[in-house]
Specification:
Elements: E1 4-5, E2 10-15, H1 18-22, H2 25-31, H3 37-49, E3 53-59, E4 62-74, E5 78-88, H4 97-111, E6 116-119, H5 126-134
Parallel strand pairs: 5-6
Antiparallel strand pairs: 1-2, 2-3, 3-4, 4-5
């Protein structure tokens, strides 16, 4: 598992275990305000069973950004790392936290011999779109969604 450090003394490292992930509920609520702790735990249990992992950016011992991710394969992309729930604390935005997390996941994808990295970003999140374009991502397809 890679580790990364930036000049601002922020570090990135993997967050392992259900309890450590549950401790990040406050950050998760910044992206999904309606997410209760109970629902977060329920979903995490299912996600962990399917290979979900999480990386955090830390200022000392405080997690100031995180991203979940999965590794899988599809015919159109080959082996891929999928970024999921990428969040930077509002007080730490535009301070290199997103870049630190993105770089960590890029290195992890290389370590795992992935062919691609992919992600979904909410259509209303224009700041995230700008960030991902700067990081070299491009729009490949639409992600369609239907509630049941």
């Amino acid at each position: 598992m890679p580790s990364a450090t930036n000049p601002s003394n922020l570090t990135a490292s993997e967050i392992t275990g259900l309890q450590n992930m549950l401790n990040q509920h406050g950050l998760i609520k910044q992206l999904n305000p309606a997410m209760t702790r109970e629902r977060y735990e329920e979903l995490l249990i299912t996600m962990l069973d399917n290979g979900y992992r999480m990386v955090g950016a830390f200022d000392s011992s405080t997690c100031v950004g995180l991203s979940g991710f999965w590794v899988n394969a599809k015919l159109y992309s080959g082996k891929y790392l999928e970024v999921d729930n990428f969040i930077v604390d509002e007080a730490y935005r535009s301070k290199g936290v997103g870049k630190l997390l993105s770089d960590w996941m890029l290195q992890e994808a290389k370590n795992l011999a992935c062919d691609t990295i992919m992600l979904d970003a909410y259509v209303t999140n224009s700041a995230a779109h700008k960030f991902y374009f700067r990081e070299g991502f491009h729009i490949k397809s639409y992600h369609f969604f239907k509630s049941i």
